[in-house]
Design brief:
The longest helix is centred in the last third of the chain and has 26 residues. The chain is of the alpha+beta class and about 425 residues long. The radius of gyration is 23 Å and the shape is globular. Helix content is about 30%, strand content about 30%. Strand 2 and strand 3 form a beta hairpin.
Amino acid sequence: MGLDIGTTFIKAVIGELDEDDNVSVIGFAKKPSQGLRNGVIVNIDAAVAAINATVDAAEQVAGVDVDSVFTAIGGAQVESLNSEGNTVVDDRSDNYRTLEITDAAKGRALGASTAISIPMGMGMLHTIPQEYFVDDLPGVKDPLGMMGKRLKVKVHIILANETALDNLKQCIVRAGYEWNGIASKTLVAAFATIHEDEMDLGSILIDMGGGTTDVIVMNKGTPVFMASIPVGGNLVTNDISRVKDIHVSIAEKIKVESGCCWISGGDEGEEVIIPGVGARPPEVTSQRELCQIIQPRVEEIFKMVRSEIVHHANLTKLNGSIVLTGGGSKMPGVVELAQCVWGTTSVRVGEVSDMGGLDKGYREPDFATAVGLLDDRWKSRQSSSSRKSSAPNSEKGENFLKKIGNKFWNNFF
């Protein structure tokens, strides 16, 4: 089971291996979250209760009992950096002899890349090779079996706050389940929604959550940059609440049912009824007026993400797509607004692969992380300090995401 414990909702997806070792989804559920603030667990008892309610609902759909789970961590609790490591291929001699590169040599190079100083309180979650260099030959994806004297590797290291990891594990254990492993939310969401060709070309995934907006940049098939913006959909709800002077719960309901962040031309959109409070009668407004509240905040979030990437990713151009996931990506008009901010038409909402089942609700963008946890690719890149056990090999189902050919945003930096 993949369990995505978010600020606003908890999502659970249960999969099973078929006779061809492919994962099929047999049950899933989504329930309101409790005990979290901006992605951080602040009340373990409340979080445990919400986890149990979500898993129970997924188990009823699947018709099975789950004993263990994979889960994910994101937000400000996760950081990343790039590093590199060098080694000689022949470690038994002082001479630089040309030998065949083995798993042992790869392991030494990777070990050297992680021999770095990391911030206090942080632990390594993933170590992901970006490219290898065999002597003076760059850009090698897998040097195994090649001949060389020296081996160098560039890696992307994802770190997670150790206290946050411990609290997350504690929630899983107290809920009565075995913890099998923890991954980066944006990494697994990227594997679930971005086509491999898009990863090679260079793409950006923006996970629009309730408490935070997380981003990961994929280039040449591997992550090169991650960031978390401490604002999300809850801030949009608060804006509606303040402007319309209504309770947050009513504002959230209006946002989900009638909210949009892009209306073109003179279209006023549908009529929106704001319930009365106390002696105040109900108010009739338009979707356009609601959009005027929502759009500036969502636009601000996109601009903050863009600024982070421009200043810290060290990239000059990307040729792939901007993929939107998370609950915020389901709001009408979000693609059009993102296209406007980024100056490209290569923007789409992320949809995960069809992995069976009569109900395809798990393909919605807010399930990207939970479904991505069923994918084995992140497990092979998990640092040993964070890996509890391995899972059987599995292949993703058919990926329905189409290759995007639009190049308009090549030079947006």
